[in-house]
Structure formats: C-alpha cells, structure tokens
Design brief:
Shape: globular
Radius of gyration: 22 Å
Bound molecules: NADP nicotinamide-adenine-dinucleotide phosphate, magnesium ion
Structural class: alpha/beta
CATH topology of the largest domain: Rossmann fold
CATH architecture of the largest domain: 3-Layer(aba) Sandwich
Number of helices: 18
Strand order of the largest sheet: 1-9-8-7-6-5-2-3-4
Order of helices and strands: EHEHEHEHEHEHEHEHHEHHHHHHHHH
CATH class of the largest domain: Alpha Beta
C-alpha cells in the first residue's frame, strides 16, 4: 500500500487552475475553504438556483456560479453534493458541457463504482476521499493538520491525473496526514461497510440500546446519557490517540476485565454473521440499489427514520444536559447557519 505526503505532491500544478466545488455542504465548504487557504487562486462554488447554500457560500467570500457554467469553464469540477443526486446532476448538467481535458473529481467512489455515472472519455476522473466528516476536514486543516484521505484515478486522459489529484489532496490538507492509494471499488465498499457497521449504524445503535436498557431498568435518563453517550468521546479520544491498548491502559482494571468478558457477548457470532451479510449486500450492489430506489420515491422511509430518531428521549435529555455545558458548544464543528 502506498501513502503519499505533501513532499510527494506539486501543489503548483493546481494553483492557477479554475477549481469548482459543486455543493457547499459538509465536504463542499471544507474543500473550498482549504483549497483557497492553501493558495488556489480561483475557487468557485456551483449551486442550483434557489439553493439555501448560496448565501452561506457568498458570506464566506466565494464566487457562486450555476452548475452549467461550472461545467463549461472549470479545470477541476469536484462533485460534493449528496451521492444520490450526482447521477442526474451529471447526466443533465455536466455530461454534454464539461470542458474537454478537464478533471471530474469525487469525494466518494459510489457513483462511479456502481455505474451511476459513466464519465466521458476525454476527461480525467479522480477521487480524493477524506476519511472523516467534512467539518473535521476543515477544523483539522485550521489546526495545521489534515484528515487522511484515499486517492484513486479512474480515468487518466491527460496523463497527469495522479499528479493533479495529489496536488488537490495536498491543498485539502490530506498530504499532511497521508493520501493512501486505492481503487474506487475498495474505497466505496470499505467506506459503506465502516459507516454502516461500526462508525454510524453500529455505534448509534449501541449507544441507544445501552441507554434504553438502563432507562427501562429504572435508572435516571441523565445518568444513562452520560454513561452511554457523553463518555463515548472520552474513550474514543484515547483510542484515536494510541489505539485499543492505550485506552485500556487508562481505564481501571475493573473496566478492562469487563471489556474482555462482556464485549464478546455484545458482538457475538450472530453479530459477526450479520456483518458479513451487510458486506455482501454492499459488494453485490443491493444496498446501493435499495438506497437509489428509496431516493426515486422521495425518501419516505429515510425521512421517517430521521424524524423518529430526532424525537428519541436520548436527544431530548442530551440537549438539556449539553445546555448545562456551554463549553461544548464553543467553536462548534457544525454550525448549520454557516456550513
Ligand atoms: P451534503 O453536505 O449533503 O451536501 C449538501 C450540499 O449539496 C448543499 O450545498 C446542497 O445545497 C447541495 N445540493 C443538494 N442538491 C443539489 C443539487 N441538485 N445541485 C447542486 N447542489 C445540490 O454532502 P456531503 O455529505 O458533503 O457529501 C458530498 C460528497 O462527499 C458525497 O460524495 C459523500 O459521499 C462524500 N463524503 C462525505 C463525507 C461527509 O463527511 N459528509 C465524508 C467523506 C465523503 P442546498 O443547500 O440547496 O441543499
Ligand atoms: Mg465514510
């Protein structure tokens, strides 16, 4: 496996290019701001008419253009909109107008890997996929660090696609922590698996189930919240800093013994079997097909699940408790009015 750093990249390659980020959400705002701060002279944001993001991008000082204009004029066009709309966006606003010889860039391999976008042959196609949320891509960069990213080339028309991708990743801050060379397939399948099984699906369900078990047994919801949600960050900080052994060094022997004997009762053979099934659904394309079908009918289940979980008592009690800890809200990573 090859890892590339800033020293391997020539940032000058993209300094004078016209770079347009389509979408100004989690990844979009971070790519735009980091590239601009790194010294790319022309960074534009492309948005649809009436987009709620227009005012956010303008207040941050960016030039906002239409997607059709961006497609005609950009040297690098990064698609940073939700994955589920990229196929139609590409078909209707990009495929026919994209400047020949330019580069189409992705922050995730899904649309290319599952064939939802079949790019024209006269362009470069690359991916810089940060291994972290967009808001962290920005906050780490501002601290002088960077979020490690995966780098891959799908099409190398210019013969320089890899050098352009390295320069883009370097501007994003990824070259400070490492750009790992991979394929669209590997990035996409491992990313979907990680977020479903461990990082998002696995973790939120674990937290919620632990919280509900304590509350149902008559313990105070405040106590359950601190124990099962708030403390996750404290433990994750130790894992992030030095791995599992580092975390176990810091916790008590009692906690460590409980970790060994009870952890395996929670993540048991059944859970592992289910993990394999989830991985096959990702590999066969079933997950993506189901998700795209859900999007075709305007996401009714998705929206219902989102609304239901927002009303869960862990969210209600959490808000109350966090309001008592105002320092948590200072320098928030997510400020929905701005990014
Ligand atoms: P996001 O925050 O959901 O993107 C929202 C932005 O896209 C908003 O500016 C939104 O404008 C705009 N948008 C929505 N529909 C649009 C349309 N039809 N035309 C133009 N703009 C439109 O997206 P994201 O989570 O950053 O994901 C972007 C890409 O990065 C995806 O490929 C994703 O897989 C990848 N990625 C994301 C993360 C992450 O941290 N989220 C991590 C790694 C990779 P409005 O304000 O008008 O809705
Ligand atoms: Mg991910």
């Amino acid at each position: 496996m090859k890892v590339y750093y800033d020293k391997d990249a020539d940032f000058n390659i993209i300094k004078d290019k016209i770079v347009t980020i389509v979408g100004y959400g989690s990844q979009g705002h971070a790519h735009a701001a980091n590239l601009k701060d790194s010294g790319v002279k022309s960074v534009n944001i492309a948005l649809k008419e009436n987009s709620l993001s227009i005012s956010k991008a303008k207040s941050a000082g960016f030039n906002v253009i239409s997607i059709d204009e961006a497609s005609k004029n950009s040297d690098i066009l990064m698609l940073a909109t939700p994955d589920e709309i990229q196929g139609k966006l590409y078909k209707h606003h990009i495929h026919n107008t994209l400047k020949s010889g330019s580069a189409l860039a992705f922050a995730h391999g899904l649309n290319i890997h599952y064939g939802l976008i079949e790019p024209r042959e006269d362009i470069d196609v690359f991916m810089i996929a940060p291994k972290g949320p967009g808001h962290t891509v920005r906050s780490e960069y501002q601290k002088g660090g960077g979020v490690p990213s995966l780098i891959s080339i799908y099409q190398n028309k210019s013969g320089n696609a890899f050098e352009i991708a390295l320069a883009y990743g370097s501007g994003l801050g990824a070259g400070r922590s490492g750009m790992i060379e991979t394929t669209f397939r590997e990035e996409c399948e491992t990313d979907l698996f990680g977020e479903q099984v461990v990082l998002c699906g696995g973790l939120t369900e674990l937290i919620t189930a632990g919280y509900e078990t304590l509350v149902d047994a008559g313990y105070a919801p405040e106590m359950a919240y601190f124990e099962c949600l708030h403390e996750v960050k404290l433990i994750v900080d130790l894992l992030y800093e030095g791995g599992i052994a580092n975390m176990r060094y810091s916790i008590s022997n009692t906690a460590e013994y409980g970790d060994y004997v009870s952890g395996k009762r929670i993540i048991n053979q059944e859970t592992r079997k289910e993990m394999k099934k989830i991985l096959s659904d990702i590999q066969s394309g079933k997950f993506t097909r189901d998700w795209m079908m859900e999007c075709e009918v305007n996401q009714p289940h998705f929206k219902a699940m989102r609304n239901k979980s927002k009303k869960h008592s862990i969210e209600v009690i959490g808000k109350k408790l966090r309001d008592m800890m105002p320092w948590i809200g200072k320098n928030k990573l997510v400020d929905t009015k701005k990014n």
